Amino acid sequence: MQVLPDIPVALAALDADFCLIDINQAAVRLLGYDREAVIGEPVARFMTDRFVAENLQSVRARSSSRRIRYDFFTSTGKLVETEVSFNRRYDDQGQHVGTIAAVFDMTEARHHERIRHEMHHEIVRTNQDLENLHSMMISELQQPVRLMHNQLRVLAEREGARIRDGLLDLTEQSLNQMADLINSLLSLLEVDTGPRAAQPCQVHSAISRSVDQRIRSWKGTAPYVSVDLPLPVLRIDIHSLVQVIDELTLNALRFSHPERDLAIRIWGNYQQGVCQLFFRDNGIGFPPELNDRVFEPLARFHAQKQHDGQGLGLARCIRLMKRLDGRIIADGEAGQGVTFHIAFPASPDEDAQHAFAEFSL
10 Å Cβ neighbour count for 326? Predict the structure, then answer.
């Protein structure tokens, strides 16, 4: 007499010795055995030796178990990948009288899982190959640029008087732009997006120092800068954060408004494990519809003759923020400037409230 319900999930009833008492129709279809042929057989007969050795004793000792991965054999000898959940049954006196096992066919799911795993590794490998190829191509481009610089210098020394005025300067300017682009691409590709070691740091001091170093190296008019970061000592990857701030500072200097003095304001807060920073400048800005596009590599939305740069600084910020497991978004306004919002997880360092992180750009 069948005691198990006919439901889509394969069920097997076992006695106290783990011999089969009954299986439902779903189990018949999965196993390929007639119901009468398996009644009284030990369940270990249908399991792989490895599962019997590693799991069956622990299943016997538990009142219930989570789903366990294991393989078993059908009537044709085919190996089927499944997950099984065992639930022991007891009588009124607390004596173990049997076990109900639910068997879930995982063959198709495991097949897709293996495909996804293989595809993931192939994508990672392909991306790494592409990055290596890009780096090699850019490195190879540097050599002819250097050679052309040298040849131009020799040409200027020998034939400078016979060459039309301005032609040598224009050629040298083009070569310099090409060299800058190659160096910027290398800088972008060299940013590993994997996480880096965190260290205790006073964020206010580190960022103030970074901004000051960048402004000192700037040949134009120095801007007004306000840094207000009343943050605790945090354990973060300060090297990556400082590079982000440096890129934003350089971006503000390059795209300052011609009719007013540049002002940069940096402020932030720390709440519930998240550090938020805001970087605001009053430069020429950009329309709000470009808020996402400004982070694209080689994105330029202003005349290059008026504003230098290769369009790679903000793209580099995106990669640096991945190191911090954080994000950066832009809020631009044409003619008024832009505010960059930075957020990343961080933890306070109670034992290092006076620690400074040593860093270099």
Answer: 22
